[in-house]
Amino acid sequence: MNRYGRAAAALALAVTVTACTGDPAPSASPGRSAGPASPAGIRFYVDGEGAAAQEVRRLQQEGKTEEAALIRKIADRPNAMWIGDPDPSARVADITEKARRAGQVPVLVAYHIPDRDCGQFSAGGAANPDEYRAWIRRFAEGIGDRAAWVVLEPDALAHILDNCTRGGQAAERLDLLREAVETLKRQPGTRVYLDAGNAGWIRNPGDWIDPMRRAGVEKADGFAFNVSNFFTVEESVAVAGRLSDGLGGAPYVIDTSRNGNGSPRDAQGDDAWCNPAGRALGAAPTTGTGRERVDAFLWVKRPGESDGECHRGEPTAGAWFHAYALELARNAG
Q1: What pLDDT, on the 0 to 100 scale, is given for residue 23?
Q2: Catalytic residue chosen out of the listed positions 47, 155, 195, 295
Q3: Is 98 a member of any domain?
Q4: 2 belongs to a structural domain
Q5: 207 assigned to active site
Q6: Which end of the chain is more exposed for a tag (fewer CB within 10 A), N or C?
Q7: CB–CB of 197/203 below 8 Å?
């Protein structure tokens, strides 16, 4: 996923804005109810069968206890579950039911928009709008009345605004996102956060307000920020706070999975966002953020899973990348 965008311009903007702080459990924005599974006190779902958990078991069997302890920093934390299956219902139902039995709430990423990732490392998605509408209905059916937090379609909105998706296709995508929000919000236990890019993708937060409204953010529980990227909480809040202001105080969540050392300052192109060296795990997932309007810190990107081949022969997007996982964990201290 090309999630870096035009970072230099955005960071120049971000450092001029004071980050907001406040109570761990923010109040709802005007006209927006607290919604299901109100943020305070949520225990997010830990996937005991994910790639990191399997890696821990393998390393223990091989007697590599030091490496196993490092990877456990990932395996023992709640990681989002990315859903792009052709029919998502069974997998979503399985995850949400396991989480319900554990007394936890899963974070799911709905990732199947047509022309996903604009044909880059995470290309794919539904073949056409009608297929996507059917897909998101099946996704919602899989949740049923169980609790879930859903991050909706990383990159989809940002790729409209950076002109990857143009003209009628852009309007069509905004309609699909709005319909997806509406479909998911019919489920009584579901919170929905529309992806809104990152601090390196946004030149002028004001330009995003109308598209976000057209995409249904005001019917969602808020928006997601910094998904699969590396900007610090302070940098993210500086920009996301302005988006929130323009949306009447909309809450948001921040992906802190790999932002412990912030974003690389000197890297260019793919090197800036695709498995960049020197990064670290960030703040653990929690609803106790201590930040006004920030509903949660989440690990949306699953640490240790590759961003893509990056033109360097690295693992494909979503595949386990052992050396990178170890580096993230070591650098986190």
Answers
A1: 33
A2: 155
A3: yes
A4: no
A5: no
A6: C
A7: no
